[in-house]
Each structure stands twice: as C-alpha cells, then as structure tokens.
Design goal:
The chain has about 210 residues and is an alpha+beta fold. The chain folds into three domains: about 1-45; about 50-105 and about 165-214, no CATH class; about 110-165. It has three helices and eleven strands. It is elongated.
Length: about 210
C-alpha cells in the first residue's frame, strides 16, 4: 500500500514541478511581451534624436521597433508591398529600415561664355546651315556635389545635377543585468539604431528601423 502511496506522491510532485516550470515559462514570456510593448510605445512616441559626430558629421538615432509579421502587415501595408517584390523563394523578412535625407548646398562658381554651333536641317535639297550661339555655362564640382549646365541667350538653362550620399548604419543593443546591477544576461534590455551621413551637406530628416519577430 505504501508503495502505491509513494508512486502517487511522486507523480503529484512531478506534475507540480512540471506545472511550475510551465507557469514560469509563461510568466517570462508575458514579461518579455510587456517589455516589448513598453519599448515600442516609447519609440513610437519619441522623436528622432539628431546629433553630430566628432568629425562634425550629421547623425541621428532612434529606438528599434519589434513587430510580428502580422503587426507589420497591419501598420505598414504599403511598405510591405514593395518589400515583397524583393523577396525570393525560401526567404523571409527579418528587419526593415527607412532613412529620409535632405541635402542643402551653397553654390559658388563662375559663369563662362562658350560658343555652341547649332546645325539646322536643310530644306528643299539645300545644305544645312551652321548657326553659332553664345552660351553661358557653369561647372561646379566637389566630393559630394556636381553640377554642369549652360544657359542660352533666351535664359533657358539645361544641365546635369549629381548628388552623392554615403550612409553608415549601426545597430547596438544593451543587455539586462542580473538583479539589475550585476553581470550581463543574454536578455536584451533595449536596442538603438544610428545612421551617420558621410556627406556634410546632408541632414537626416527621419529614420525608422523595425525587427520582425516571431
């Protein structure tokens, strides 16, 4: 009889331990969901923080949103259509970023006269005519900006504009500490996403970074 009692007690103990483990895992999962919700709320309500690096380059930082694919479909429908066109077979979305830029230049250059020869088509088997035209041209070139063009006597300007950009993206994480102040654990406390523009004339207007989670 005692044998059966021991077996029942052992079964109850094992069942209790299993239940405790399951509840503990559930509590951890709920805490993680709560932390993600709080982090997302703070990031959505917060503004992009702009600053300058030691090299006086324009930079900006923003918190990282963590959304499930269903949440992303709900809140970023238009973006998802574009992203789906980039996906290939057996691949899935892991993260999505967006950066908006604004470039401002103070142009300094010299306008020079140049002669352009315009050839008009001949009519009635007559040879074409060559008509010289005096154009005022401008050429501005530096490491990030290039502009070439000419204006005719009527003031009509035709030219080419080239703007070069180089962005550096950095994602950093901060890990939770055991009891809040001891050693680092593997659990992530928060994430931060920084963008630096190598072009000194460019201002970062807006950035966004989203991680797609399970």
């Amino acid at each position: 009889m005692k044998k059966y009692i021991y077996i029942i007690v052992a079964a109850l103990v094992i069942s209790g331990i299993t239940t405790i483990i399951g509840l503990s895992a559930r509590v951890d999962s709920l805490k993680e969901e709560r932390d993600i919700y709080k982090s997302n709320t703070a990031d959505l309500l917060g503004d992009v923080q702009r600053y300058k690096t030691k090299d006086s380059l324009n930079a900006a930082t923003v918190g990282v949103l963590q959304l499930t694919i269903e949440e992303y479909k709900k809140y970023r429908t238009d973006d998802l259509i574009t992203i789906k066109q980039l996906e290939t077979k057996n691949r899935r979305i892991e993260s999505v970023g967006k950066t908006e830029l604004q470039s401002s230049y103070r142009l300094v250059g010299k306008i020079r006269d140049s002669i352009a020869y315009i050839v008009s088509a001949g009519m009635n088997d007559k040879p074409p005519d060559t008509i010289p035209e005096n154009l005022k041209c401008i050429n501005i070139v530096d490491d990030w900006f290039e502009m070439h063009g000419c204006a005719n006597e009527n003031g009509d300007f035709t030219g080419d504009f080239i703007n070069r950009e180089s962005l550096q993206h950095v994602q950093t994480v901060k890990y939770k500490r055991f009891l809040g102040f001891l050693w680092e654990t593997k659990k992530i406390k928060d994430r931060k996403f920084d963008v630096v523009s190598k072009n000194p004339n460019t201002k970062i207007v807006d950035i966004e970074f989203i991680i797609i989670r399970e």
